[in-house]
Design brief:
The structure is a single chain. Strands 3-2-1-4-5-6-11 form a seven-stranded parallel beta sheet, with helices on both faces. It has a two-stranded parallel ribbon with strand order 7-10. The chain has helices spanning about 10-20, 35-40, 55-60, 80-100, 120-135, 155-165, 185-195, 215-225, 240-250, 260-265, 275-280, 290-295; strands at about 1-5, 25-30, 45-50, 65-70, 105-110, 140-145, 150, 170-175, 180, 185, 205-210, 215, 230-235. About 45% of the residues lie in helices and about 20% in strands. It is an alpha/beta fold and about 300 residues long. The chain is built from twelve helices and 13 strands. Helix 1 (about 10-20) links the parallel strand 1 and strand 2.
Length: about 300
Amino acid sequence: MKVLVTGGTGFVGTAILHQLRTRGLDVRALVRSTRNAERVRALNVEPAFGDVTDAAAVLAAARGCTHVVHLVAIIRGREAEFERVMVGGTRNVIAAARTAGVQRLVQMSALGVDEQTRTLTPYFAAKWQLEQDVAASGLEHVIFRPSFVFGRSSGALPTFVRQVRLSPVVTIIGSGRRRLQPVWIEDVANHFAAALELPAAAGRTFELGGPDVVTWDELYGRIAKTLRKRRAFVHVPAGVARTGARLTEWIPGSPLTADQVTMLEDAGDNVVHGSDTVDTFALPLVPLDEQLRRAT
């Protein structure tokens, strides 16, 4: 088996590269820079230069590979950019996988994506469309929809921890009653690696969350308890947060976009429905309190 990974230098992608190499698999990563090439070489991963928006580069990277893990996505930008990178990029990956004779494509989507929420934001619209394209591709495939992915030093959790550690008054967007089901980064990587060959996973879409469901209020309360901090929590109405984010979202390094506020509050609870993933993969999951302990 030889696996091509797109988006392998991102937060989730790096963990997946580690997991694939731990399993002794031959791995190639599509990279856009010499710096990223050196990063993947340090993991004994072969770099292939290119971008998912370049069909020829994707095909060159896919040749000789038996499996593909496609992770590339963006979280901010204009609607046309989501279409170009996420939808167009996925179509390039599908076309390359077909031509190269890839046996299975494992695709990253997002929990909360469905036919109703696709109209809320360009991100959801792009994720929904790429799911449809993968499902209709004729390729053997597995699609994952992870909840919030937590890790020690990247992703959303370190931001939440800093909020609670540094500020005596912590702001929470919306009512604080929306529920989420955070999943640990290594657990996500384990599922992606297992999905490459597991026969029972073929042709299916899996929602992926951790073992604990909490509200946003409960999450911040648990972080405060882990840090042994007494904090006051103040709820900021989603409309106010959305307006503020819209004014600052184009500033480099801004923490939140208006669309992200919409996804947090308007898309409903970010939780797994049913037990398909647990029943199919039977992999251990890190409890939320242990996730927080590891990150603090």
